[in-house]
Write a structure and sequence with these properties.
Elements (H helix, E strand, L loop, with lengths): L4 H17 L4 E4 L2 H8 L11 E5 L5 E5 L3 H7 L7 E4 L11 H12 L5 E4 L8 H10 L4 E4 L3 H6 L4 H24 L6 H14 L38 E10 L2 E11 L4 H19 L7 H13 L10 E4 L8 E6 L13 E5 L2 E2 L4 E2 L2 E7 L2 E4 L8 E3 L1
Parallel strand pairs: 1-5, 3-4, 5-6, 8-16
Antiparallel strand pairs: 1-2, 2-3, 7-8, 9-10, 9-11, 11-14, 12-13, 14-15
Helix pairs in contact: 4-5, 7-8, 9-10
Length: 388
Amino acid sequence: MTFAPAEHEARLRRVRERMAAQGIDTLIVSDPANMHYLTGYDGWSFYTPQGVVVPADGDVLLFTRRMDTAGARITTSLADEQILGFPDDYVQQRDRHPLEWVAGELLRRGAVGATVALEMDAYYFTPRAFQALRSSLPEARFVDSHELVNWVRAVKSTAELELMRTAARIVERVMAAGIEAVEPGVRQCDAVAAIYDAALRGADGAGGDYPAIVPMLPTGPAAATPHLTWSEEPFKAGEATLLELAGCHRRYHCPMARTVFLGRPPRRILDTAAATRDGLEAALAAVQPGARCEDVEAAWRLEIARHGLEKESRIGYSVGLNYPPDWGEHTMSLRSGDTTELQPGMTFHMIVGMWMDGWGYELSETFHVAADGAECLSSFPRELAVKE
């Protein structure tokens, strides 16, 4: 296991305190990151139903496909009787669902309370899974957990921050490899191969893990939008490429975005790069314990307005432990209207992307809310990378 048993016990205690406050008797967790957070379970088995059951008191239970129970024994400290494996003839069948089998086991063990909370917006919890639980547990009252465990995860422990700092050393190497690989005539897929090589080799003796999001590098006209990946087309002189990458160590992430231009950049990109950097630094300067998420975004918005710019979308979100398809934690956002107060130990990816008509620019930092302000976890030049 990555963490000492005492850390998992503290996490479980905080989860149960929130359960009590929300009137929850049984919590069923299906987000792989939340499963990992509570038990240490780590495997690529989330394409079939799996989860962790947290009763108000008593033993936590983990359920997964029977063939994956050995993985649960390897990666967690759970006792055998806490690990439930549904038979393979429940996998991807039309006439039955694994959660029907799980529900039967929970009833047999007396692990189902009157009010059962589910992660209704988790990526791997399907409508059919909900139907299976509702039909198999007719006496239960089902409610949305509203990202209960995600909110507990929002404040990182000292041990978690150390893993994110290691991920930061990795992303520094990853970004350097990505920028070096972007050259006229080089295929985009070959640049991504160099990025993955650096990401998995790691840094300072620490190996890299697979990030929750694949490398994103929209280039040329595609730089007008985020979230595009790569093709086999070559990079071209006179175009910008947006690199949004991450270092990942033991499932903890440190993302970073930078922009590289091949050739002499036009004035509009140079001006936007300077304004964006000023805005990022103004937002980072607004980070203090007790400040609100919206205060940080307001500092950004005020600064870029001086340059005649505006940005509609949020500029950041809570980040840390995660699995595909997202490294964000689905809790706080650096945006207008989010009144969440910053606390020491919170970590954010602040990404100030500017996507224009036919071109774009990206810059980001992952930071930790320290007692005296924002501690950027990585160290990498913030200027536009120009390769003439």
